[in-house]
Amino acid sequence: MKIKAVLISAMVAGAAFLGVSGTAVAAPTTAGTSVTTASTDGFGPSCTKGKNLTNGWGQCTTKGSYKWRVRVWCTLGGSGESSVVQGATRTNAYCSWGNVEQVELVFL
Q1: What is the value of pTM for the model shown?
Q2: What whole-number distance in Å separates Cα of residue 96 and Cα of residue 108?
Q3: Which run of H or of E encompasses 2?
Q4: Which pairing describes strands 100-107 and 79-81: parallel, antiparallel, or unpaired?
Q5: What pLDDT is attached to residue 82?
Q6: Helix, coil or strand: residue 17
Q7: CA distance 51 to 102
Q8: HSE-up of 60 (CA within 13 Å, CB side)?
Q9: CA–CA gap between residue 49 and residue 41 (Å, rounded)
Q10: Cα separation, 82 vs 76, whole angstroms
Q11: Distance, CA of 93 to CA of 70 (rounded, Å)
């Protein structure tokens, strides 16, 4: 228990050093999970993103004429992008080198 308390104390001190206080930080996305994203003004599209081993995906459910794509960052330094899609749909991006580390939805 004492070790756990010391680790938590060190994490809090590190967060304070970095200027983080009272801010929620999302955990990294792991394989097979999804994250809901939306614009900060509440009027943007409602979208989710996720990944498996070599693919990242995005899905938007809000109707409209907005354009977007999925970008993936891969473990061996590569990246990939989907084609540009419009409106409510789902699309994938592929890592040809390594596995997907991060998925990003890019609105154009």
Answers
A1: 0.63
A2: 24
A3: helix 2-17
A4: unpaired
A5: 98
A6: helix
A7: 8
A8: 26
A9: 19
A10: 19
A11: 6
Token output for 107: 């609105």
pLDDT at 41: 55
Closest C-alpha to 68, from 93, 50, 51: 93
Q: Name the token pair of 83.
A: 């084609």
Contacting residues for 52 by C-beta, under 8 A, at least 6 apart: 31, 32, 100
Percent helix, strand, coil in the chain, to 5, is: 15, 40, 45
**Residue at 76: amino acid letter:** L
The Cα 57–Cα 11 span in angstroms is 32
pLDDT tens for the chain, residues 1 to 108: 343 333 334 333 433 333 433 323 333 333 444 444 555 456 789 999 999 999 999 999 999 999 999 999 999 999 999 999 999 999 999 999 899 999 999 999
Is the Cβ–Cβ distance between 56 and 96 less than 8 Å? no
The two tokens of residue 76 are 């061996």
Please list, in sequence order, all residues whose beta carbon lies within 8 angstroms of the beta carbon of residue 75, skipping any fewer than 6 positions away. 95, 98, 99, 100, 101
